[in-house]
Specification:
Length: about 230
């Protein structure tokens, strides 16, 4: 093991939008009794606060100032987790498509990545955590004991998002939703700082034709083997 951590190992789950990171991280954390850190929610909180403050997505000085005064926390609420930005519950407000696209833009800015990198390392250092995002296994915790790169075809990821939006009563079409997924992939993969890419030592899982339970079984067995607990069967 690369480091002695007080509470257990660090599990990194990276991958593109709609691959199933949030769903799987939540379930795996429950199975292992680990803490779940949704780093996308942290970037989303910065995006929301920058929009409210009228800070442009390329205003690095403004974004740096904003991050200096921002505290993001997660609090458990029954089965789910609330996201607090300076104490305010922003869990719902950060989940719109508009904030998703804005987040993709501001998360490319160096001061934002630096500020959140420090926060994420502090949150995960003791282990016993699963962090999900785009650069956990490559940048935030390159020494994480277990790394997954979860993906699925853009069509399938767009279809999943479309079903979520339709359930919320959103009018978006399937074609538009797939196009937005592809646009976000290009922004996240093409940026200069901490682009989305698979860590060399990550286990790649393509969930296009797998159910959530099937992906969960692969992940849980992989982590338990790493913990020396053998196959869960
Ligand atoms: N393997 C899967 N099969 C079918 N639907 C899935 C699968 N994984 C995730 N989903 C669904 O796809 C949507 C997006 O998943 P989510 O966990 O939010 O992805 P991400 O965090 O990677 O953006 C959710 O509605 C989720 O229930
Ligand atoms: N570790 C991370 C997590 C998210 N981001 C960026 C890239 C994404 O487009 C946005 C939103 O991420 P989020 O995981 O919430 O988005 P999805 O739920 O996958 O659609 O944030 C990042 O750059 N680095």
């Amino acid at each position: 093991m690369s480091a002695v951590r007080t509470n257990g190992v660090i599990v990194a789950i990276d991958g593109p939008s709609g691959a199933g990171k949030s769903s799987l991280t939540k379930l795996l954390a429950q199975r292992l009794g680990y803490i779940h850190i949704d780093t996308g929610a942290m970037f989303r909180a910065v995006a929301l606060m920058s929009k409210r403050a009228g800070i442009a997505s390329d205003d690095d000085a403004g974004l740096a100032e904003l991050c200096r005064g921002l505290e993001v926390n997660f609090v458990r609420d029954g089965d789910s987790c609330r996201v607090l930005a300076n104490g305010e519950d922003v869990s719902r407000e950060i989940r719109t498509e508009e904030i998703g696209l804005l987040t993709s833009a501001i998360s490319a800015r160096k001061p934002v990545r630096e500020a959140l990198l420090t926060m994420q390392r502090a949150m995960g250092a003791k282990g016993g955590v699963i962090l999900e995002g785009r650069d956990i296994g490559t940048v935030v915790f390159p020494d994480a004991e277990v790394k997954f790169f979860l993906s699925a075809s853009a069509e399938e990821r767009g279809r999943r998002r479309y079903l979520e939006l339709a359930a919320r009563g959103d009018q978006a079409t399937l074609e538009e939703t797939i196009a937005k997924v592809i646009q976000r992939d290009q922004q996240d993969e093409g940026r200069e700082h901490a682009p989305l890419r698979q860590a060399e030592d990550a286990l790649a899982i393509d969930s296009t034709t797998l159910s959530i339970d099937e992906v969960l079984a692969v992940m849980e067995n992989t982590v338990r083997k790493r913990l020396g607990q053998g196959d869960k069967g």
